[in-house]
Amino acid sequence: MNRFTPFLGNIDKLFSTCQGEKKEYVQPALKNLGSVSIVLIREAIAPVVFRNSEEEITDIDINLDDNNSEAYVRAVPNKFKYPERGRGLQILRIFKAGGKMPQNKIILTKKMKPSDGFDLNSLVFGDSTVWDSNVLPVKAGVNYSDALSILPKHLCVDATFHNRAFEDGSLFEPEKKKNSDNLFNRHFVKPGTLLVQVLSTRGKLLPQMGLDHLLLSIGIAGTYGGQTSVTGINIQTHVAGIYGGRFEQPQTSPYQIVRTLANRAKNNWEEPLFKNVETLTSRLHEILGNAHEVAMTAKEARAHQDELMQRFESDYQSMETNYQQAAAKVATFFDQWFKGK
Description:
By secondary structure, the chain is of the alpha+beta class. The chain has helices at residues 78-94, 120-125, 208-218, 254-265, 277-288, 298-314, 316-339, and strands at residues 15-19, 24-28, 35-44, 59-65, 68-75, 127-131, 134-138, 142-144, 147-152, 157-163, 172-173, 178-179, 183-189, 194-201, 221-222, 235-245, 294-296. 29% of the residues lie in helices and 28% in strands. Helix 1 (78-94) crosses helix 3 (208-218).
């Protein structure tokens, strides 16, 4: 992972000081040119529900060329970010390196320090709270893109019919003595569907420890989307590659990836490219590898992620030490930034 060091921040230099008219002020490290993009393939391994207030799966029209557009499944960033952010808090708690408060419910009293609520997870995923009538905003070190299906929506979505009237599964309502009209459809993304998502750092602010924490939080599989109690674990995550450079490249946008894949396939949706994770991974690396200054293949990225997982499970004390050392530096950063010297 050292190849990405030029595009990442330094955990020992998270903040700097600047001279005001009367005193010195502490500020976060200034942004510099540098971006690292983690390209993910999200594979549906059980029915997944991505929707808003409508019963249908959320979608978005993408123009494939001047005369053709298709609707694709669209999972907005929070469908993945929220559960992974929660997993990050759980990792910090097991190492006693943060996660002192529930997600999205940081409450600081006047006698508390900012670091009592903010931690490494805040640095990676972002956070905010009010402290002594002051708003404390922490911008996420990692930006989540939309996750888009690589197949058009009509090829990867289905629906089932349900009723929620009586516990024996019948339509009869004993109280009203009549058949129920309380019926509904559940639309879902079919197992086997592949989605592409990109997680990007910007400004050369996120340190290597934050990137490793992100990879641990992403994990291998999890429960995502709405109505998740229906199917349990429903998404398996594959790292398709990690790419770095001074500037972000347009080819890294999942919208551009979908257009490129569709144009290369010439609407032959039965091609293995749209069904097989390894085939898709190889094609993505062809598209993105030469577009960036530094590239890490899927095999290398997965090896690093597996190493982190193995350390988490078997080299617990060593990883706990690393997390607690990072926690102390991050705590100093937030206290200095929001409270001052």
